[in-house]
Amino acid sequence: MKVNPVKIKIKIKRRTITSLILALVFIIIPFIKCQKINNALFGEKEPSVNDIISNGKKKLSEGNFQEAAKIFAEGVKIYPNNPEIRFGLALAQSAILLKNVENVTLELGKYNNSIGIWNFSPTYKTVSKRKANSS
C-alpha cells in the first residue's frame, strides 16, 4: 500500500489548525472572560473619560506635569480616539517642555551672572524676580 505524502501533510495541517482553534475556544477566550469577571468583581475597571480628564486637570493645576502626562497617556491607551484626552496629553507634555526650557534659561542666566554678563539674558532677571516674589 502506497501512502501519498501530500495527503499526510494536509492531514497534519488540518490537525494543527484544529488544535489551534480548540485552544482558542477552550483556553484563551475563557481566560479573557475570567479576567473581565475578576476586574468586575474586585473593582479593577477602566476609568471613565471624565475620570481621566478630571484627574489629569487636577494634576496640571497642582503643577505636577509628569503625573498629568502619565494619566493622559494611560487615557490615550484606553480611549485612543478621544480628542480631550489627547489634548490633555499634549498640554502636559508642553508644560514639561516649557519647564525644562525655563530651567535651562535659569542655568544660563546664573552662568552669565557669574561671569558678569547681565545684559545677555534678560529672561534670567525676569524669572529670578518672579521666583523670588513667589518664595
Keywords:
2 domains; mainly alpha; 135 residues
Structure notes:
With 135 residues, this protein is mainly alpha-helical. It folds into two domains: 1-45; 47-135. The protein is built from five helices and no strands. It has helices spanning 5-41, 49-62, 65-78, 83-115, 122-134. Helix 2 runs antiparallel to helix 3 and helix 2 (49-62) packs parallel to helix 4. The longest helix is centred in the first third of the chain and has 37 residues, at 5-41. The chain is elongated and about 95 Å long. The protein starts with a helix and ends with a helix.
Quickly describe the structure.
The chain has 135 residues and is mostly helical. The chain contains 5 helices and no strands.
Rg calculated over all Cα atoms = 29 Å
Distance between the termini: 96 Å
Given the C-alpha coordinates, what overall shape results?
elongated
Task: Give a short account of the largest sheet.
Answer: none
**Order of helix and strand elements from N to C terminus:** HHHHH
**Strand composition percent:** under 5%
Pick out the low-confidence regions.
Answer: none
- How many strands? 0
In total, the number of domains comes to: 2
The secondary structure category is mainly alpha
Total helical segments: 5
Mean pLDDT: 74
Helix content range = over 70%
Topology:
Layout (H helix, E strand, L loop, with lengths): L4 H37 L7 H14 L2 H14 L4 H33 L6 H13 L1
